[in-house]
Design goal:
Layout: E1 8-9, E2 13-14, H1 15-24, E3 27-28, E4 31-35, E5 39-45, E6 55-59, E7 62-69, E8 87-94, E9 105-109, E10 112-118
Parallel strand pairs: 3-8
Antiparallel strand pairs: 1-2, 4-5, 5-10, 6-7, 7-8, 9-10
């Protein structure tokens, strides 16, 4: 059997060094973003938290979701796989123009976070005529 080689990835770091660097960084939430006839919806799985542990902010055309998943680890363990992210996380989503950010609603149930923005009437597109010079 051939011994395993350390593979060089990302800026010359070994796989082990790269994994440690990733673990030190902030995690990013996975999201589904879709629209219905009346709403613009952001859906995310946020397991292991309570609603009070999630910070949601709307700043102009940006939705920001933040939080921190505490690690359930107690003591030394010999992992076969360690894929779950524990620690601080955030996600920024650019919002469309035709939503009302003042009437946003957020619901958290069984680890699913739904953020709904009601749609507004679309702003008319203004045509610009080009003058010959």
């Amino acid at each position: 059997m051939t011994p395993t080689k350390k593979v060089k990835i990302k800026d010359g770091l070994s796989e082990e060094q790269f994994s440690e660097e990733v673990l030190k960084s902030e995690g990013e939430l996975t999201v589904d973003v879709y629209e219905t006839a009346t709403d613009f919806v952001v859906l995310s799985t946020v397991a292991g938290l309570n609603a009070k542990d999630i910070d949601i902010q709307v700043d102009k055309d940006m939705l920001v979701i933040k939080g921190c998943r505490p690690s359930p680890d107690e003591g030394e363990k010999n992992y076969f796989y360690k894929e779950c992210y524990w620690g601080p996380f955030s996600r920024k989503i650019i919002l469309p123009e035709n939503i009302d950010g003042t009437k946003v609603q957020a619901e958290f149930n069984k680890g699913l976070l739904y953020i709904k923005f009601p749609k507004t009437d679309s702003k008319p597109v203004k045509g610009i005529s080009v003058q010959e010079g």
